[in-house]
Amino acid sequence: MFEQIREDVRVVFDRDPAARSTLEILTAYPGLHAVMFHRASHWLWQAGAKWLARLLSHIARWLTGIEIHPGAVIGRRFFIDHGMGVVIGETAIIGHDCTLYHGVTLGGTSWHKGKRHPTLADDVVVGAGAKVLGPIEIGEGTRIGSNAVVLRDVPANSTVVGVPGRLIERKQPPLDVEHREKMASKMGFDAYGATADAPDPVAHAINCMLDHVHLIDTKMERMCELLREMGYEPGDDELPELTSCEIISTAEELHNLQLEETEKTE
User: Fold this and answer.
1) What is the rounded CA–CA span in Å between residue 12 and residue 16?
2) Of 44, 89, 99, 232, which one is least surrounded by beta carbons within 10 A?
3) Using CA atoms, how far apart are residues 252 and 239, in angstroms rounded to an integer?
4) Cα(141)–Cα(16) distance, rounded to whole angstroms?
5) Are 134 and 108 in contact (CB under 8 A)?
């Protein structure tokens, strides 16, 4: 038990730069207190003392502002930052090394008994105010943005933002980043600063456009080379310049159309 508490304290030091001492963590971190109460109530729940387990979890809710049903299964090195308003349902399953911020709900969408709450794999981070609802699975390493509402399964190593939650997979770009940077520089746009830490749908659309333009340029250059080999000179006419405002406007229109199509489908 004491080794488990020491591990929980180390987790707070690792994930909260505001933590200054072990005494502060043990006495003034409601997230840690809620997890400790849950371990006791979960043990009682598994032992068959359902009412006593619920009573203990109710006391923990009153003291910490965090409601964790004693039937929920929680892995090691689980951290709740701030914690006020966090709700974790009865059939929720949380893997190791997960982090929840205040206002997070792992809730159900049905009154039927059985599995009705989410399953979070290892190393999942759920931002403040996010709602993860239903018997869905959130893949390992996933990041859920603040105030997002997630109602569907999410694959591993993904990012979900918005209402309803939109999936933004963290993939390697299909082209060499250097080519994309050169193309963006020509057009006077830099999408990388906006997407380094928090993926943005509009910037993502612009990056896809840059990849597309690069492929077209490559094919056109090859076609011109073949025409020259056949004795035809295609000329060196300069292409009109594209401004960043035009690109952003086009990307936003595409994004809005995509949202409309998604809403119609749903």
Assistant:
1) 6
2) 232
3) 24
4) 19
5) yes
Tens digit of each residue's pLDDT (9 = 90 or more) over 201-229: 556 666 677 777 778 878 888 888 888 88
For residue 170, what are the CA distances in angstroms to 77, 112, 156, 250? 25, 35, 9, 23
CA 130/CA 104 separation, integer angstroms: 5
Residues comprising the chain, all counted: 266
The reported pTM is 0.63
Angle between helices 244-265 and 201-229 (to 10 degrees): 120
Residue extents of the structural domains in the chain: 2-169, 177-265
**Which residue in this structure is represented by tokens 């990849």?**
211
The CATH number for 2-169, chosen from 3.30.70.940, 2.160.10.10, 2.60.120.1440, 3.65.10.10, is 2.160.10.10
H or E segment at 99?
strand 99-100
**Backbone phi, psi, residue 261, to 5°:** -65, -40
pLDDT by residue (tens digit) across 58-76?
Answer: 999 999 999 999 999 999 9
